[in-house]
Amino acid sequence: MDTTWLEVTLETTTPELDALCAKLTMNGATGLVIEDEEDFKNFLEQNRQYWDYVDEELLERMKGAARVKFYVTDDPDGQAQLRRWTAGIDAPCTTARLRENDWATSWQKYYKPLSVGGRLYIVPEWERGEPVPEGRTALYLNPGLTFGTGNHASTRLCLEWVEEFVRPGGTVLDLGCGSGILSVAGLLLGAESALGVDIDPKAVDVAYENAALNGLGRDRCTFLAGDILTDRSLKETLARDRWDLVLANIVADVIIPLSAHVEELLAPGGVFLCSGIIDTRSGEVEAALARNGLQVLGRKERDGWVALAARPGDGR
């Protein structure tokens, strides 16, 4: 039988948030979840180089937020725990019931198999075993782990470019690999080897897991944590092997400085595929590519996002 939980929410104000958390902690409360608009805004500002767009629903949910959440079981023990934890606290309190099974898997309803381009078929791992459309290659993915599920327009655009430019026996360098979806797609579509890099160390294990879901081992793919823009040693290591495809599904503020390093990473005839670009900033990215000797070969657009394909202007 599934456990039923109570999600308990205490509303407060930003100035009172720390005091509320202190009282809850003194009463024995654990597992506090804090939602604060000011912290959220500060986080966005301090990490502006990693995003160009924030979901409107998320912005609305955080508007004016200053709240603390925690969870107790919906039974006599949990009710007693709730009374102890909130004793002496005068703050508006609401509860909502959650079934454990729904809590753990409700997000899965948002992920269904997805056809991308002319050949790929992105399949959540829990759909493995379901029929794959004729002529398509299944790419199995755990979409709950990190960014890069194929659902977002920027990832789909980049996957379409990968399908167009990948060559049998070629090599792929995926900068900002996230879930590893682009590296895995390149290998499934004919590349011989792929290397992915991400600034988030957690992405390394996630990417290896998704590669394994598709029968791809470390003999064909490697994933590393690091930042090519700040780690000269990493850049030099990556540049020792020239790459047939260099991919960057990131944001404009990373792609622009990255474009200065692309030519030394590309093999002769290699192509740079970049996505994650808000349409209003595509001109800036194209100008940066041109400044760094890269000629745009093509442009794809969907839902306000842009993906570009480019190579050195001399055709090397």
Automatic annotation (TrEMBL):
Pfam families per the UniProt record, alphabetical: PrmA (PF06325)
Main location as per UniProt: cytoplasm
Key word Ribonucleoprotein present: yes
A GO cellular-component term linked to this record: ribosome
EC number: 2.1.1.-
Domain of life: Bacteria
Binding sites annotated in the UniProt record for S-adenosyl-L-methionine: T155, G176, D198, N249
GO aspect biological process, one term: methylation
Gene3D superfamilies in alphabetical order: Vaccinia Virus protein VP39
Transmembrane stretches, start-end: none
Designated name of the protein: Ribosomal protein L11 methyltransferase
